[in-house]
DNA sequence: TTGAAAGCGCTAACAG
DNA sequence: CTGTTAGCGCTTTCAA
């Protein structure tokens, strides 16, 4: 009967306090689990608050306290599964400890200065997880200067002091390459991204190193440039297939490029993995859905999201983050696009 | 020289007012473009605010005013491009009129009641765009009761009074079917989603109607059930291909299912569009990236996002929304997966 | 253990 | 046109 009716406006702490016959402060303390309240009073306050359906007003608390129990995520793009997975991990981790997560997306079109955005986020969130688009170095300066807890995702280079959650690209790519080599492949193509330093460069490096370690010459012709997109992977793979001596296996810098390669290979009338083995990187959800399902290197995306939140919460709570750079392990996921190299039977 | 140094804490209205030698109210009025300030004073205040790098504190304004100039989006899932596109449109539209957009994601795992979520959103946002997962009817009740401006995305059924932005599924599917029929196809398969009322059902209905209109019997065998996923589309298409008389064209309930079908068709050794035509629905970005690129029915996703924001802003500003349901047109996008039916030459 | 006062940053309402 | 007062809902600080 005492349910707050819509239209009465939200129930405030004052309502609860009055109803419980105590001061606002006592009610506040009781509800926040602070000490200095008798067990009996606390029980009563909590009971009434529950009954009334009371919820703290985060705007008010933020204003008074500086704390909202909200963490913000700055994301460049919401149309890719990579980021989606990270957000799942981050969201779950946040909500588990009674924080909320809100996502702010960057768009080229919206003319917002870094400053404006960060100030806004700072005004309602207690901390920020930043996933920057490649080449958004202009943001780094602002983030570095921002006076709030921040964790970056897979960042390196300038401002390396910014706490970062990354995964081990080099190691992952190494394991992928060894897998191909164990399957008997020696002529292995690599589909790159744009020629920039970063995660993709690590993967390329591992490709080259593993080949070298196995006494296989790195043939520049086998390195074909794409751009992380399916279309880019398609074109890059097609160039590889057009070679006089095409590769018997292709390692794509990421899953989307691998899907493009899959298209290109099928289009050339070849079969995966019978004629050509293919391996991706990331293990986005779609990787398990293609036909055949994609062998790939799993980045622990959900875990990375969780880890980012936990690192951020540590910062928020004033705990010194031991390492400014957490590197999580990758894992080879063997599915249907890699197989033992078959002996060429066809007469070329 | 007068740049606010980080660490001094953010510049507040009081700072600006003091510096300009006016009261806070005058400063507030000047900065908010309210009347009652001389042009000269206003200029001066604005100048100083700019120089100091002043930004309103949204938490404070929300508390005082009830308005934050933030709109919230409730999204079930961030790993699909469909929602990503809607968010692009919404974000752009919001930022164009100096609003900000924040996204809150639902996760099954996080035990948050509808009430909790809506209350939170209400506390910092001026309005809400709700994209509900299928079957989240429990949320509807809460949304309906919530005392805040709300716009739904492609909702119908109960609580039809909730303002909704939708697109014309029936019409889109009709155009798609006519396209196939004009290409000479008569035996056309349909890949459904789960058997529920809603957008997918409209598309199926159009499929059936167009066939009937052209005097083609609707063969139940040609309707194969999937689940909106690539894997589901794959399996559903495979069943169609295994028929004694397989279809010469397939219409998939959405693009993801179409991609699965594409895999299945290729896997069966058939070629698209040479042997089988294929058409999807949605026109997510990936549709243009597959090989061949997917012919599909475009939902104006970005436009829907924009439209949702504009409808919401109207509500926020107290303008009565004329129609509680805006239905946007769809458009056939002919790409590479549909072609004239070839005369069967193979002897079965 | 409890409460009263003051203030976070802003704006509505009323006064000059 | 400009300023003063009060208050949004909460928590800190200080006093009882």
TrEMBL record, chains A, B:
Its name, as the record gives it, is LacI family transcriptional regulator
User: Which residue ranges run through the membrane?
Assistant: none
The record, for InterPro entries, names: HTH_LacI (IPR000843), LacI/GalR-like_sensor (IPR046335), Lambda_DNA-bd_dom_sf (IPR010982), Peripla_BP_I (IPR028082)
Q: Which domain of life is it from?
A: Bacteria
SMART domains reported for this sequence: HTH_LACI (SM00354)
Which UniProt keywords are given for this protein, alphabetically ordered?
Answer: DNA-binding, Transcription, Transcription regulation
Coiled-coil regions listed in the entry: none
Q: Which GO terms describe its molecular function?
A: DNA-binding transcription factor activity; transcription cis-regulatory region binding
Q: Which residues form the HTH lacI-type domain?
A: 11-65
Which Gene3D superfamilies does this one have?
Answer: 3.40.50.2300, lambda repressor-like DNA-binding domains
User: What CDD domains would the database entry show?
Assistant: HTH_LacI (cd01392), PBP1_LacI_sugar_binding-like (cd06267)
* Keyword Glycoprotein found: no
